[in-house]
Amino acid sequence: MKGNRKSIGFKYAWNGVLSVVKTERNFRIHLLAAFIVICAGIIMQLSQVEWLFIVIAIGSVLTAECLNSAVEKMLDYLKPEIHPKAKVVKDLSAGAVLLTVLMSVVVGLIVFIPKIAGM
Fold it and tell me: Which pTM was predicted?
C-alpha cells in the first residue's frame, strides 16, 4: 500500500510540473534558456564540477518559478480582487525568482566566460 501512495504522490507532482509548463509563459522561457545553456555546455565540454554548478543554477530557477506560480495561484484563489497585501506577497515571490535568475546568470558567466575567452 505504501508504494501505491508514493506513486500517487509522484503523479500529483508530475501533474504540477506539466501544469506549470502549460500555463506559465515565464517557466517556458526559463526552460528554453536552460536548453540553450545545456547545448552550450555540451559544445564547450564543461567539466563535471562546471556541470554541477549549471545544473544547480537551472534547477534553482525552475524551482523558484514553480513556487512563484504556486504563490500567485493561491493568492488569486484566496483573494481574487486586487489587495495591497496580496500584491506585496506576489512581488516578494517574483523578487525571489529575479534574485535566483541573477545568481544563475553570474554562475553562467563564471563558467562560460573562460571557455569563450579560450576559444
Answer: 0.89
The rounded distance, in Å, linking the Cα atoms of 27 and 77 is 20
Q: Could you tell me which residues come within 8 angstroms of residue 71 by beta carbon, excluding any fewer than 6 positions away?
A: 89, 90, 93
pLDDT digits (tens, 9 = 90+) for 64-103: 999 999 999 999 999 888 888 999 999 999 999 999 999 9
CA 105 – CA 72 distance, rounded (Å): 24
Whether the Cβ atoms of residue 58 and residue 104 lie closer than 8 Å to each other: yes
Output the nine-digit C-alpha cell for 115. 571557455
Q: Are 111 and 58 in contact (CB under 8 A)?
A: no
Q: Is 103 exposed, middle or buried (CB count within 10 Å of its CB: 0-12, 13-18, 19+)? A: middle
The H-assigned helical ranges of 24-83 are 25-43, 48-78
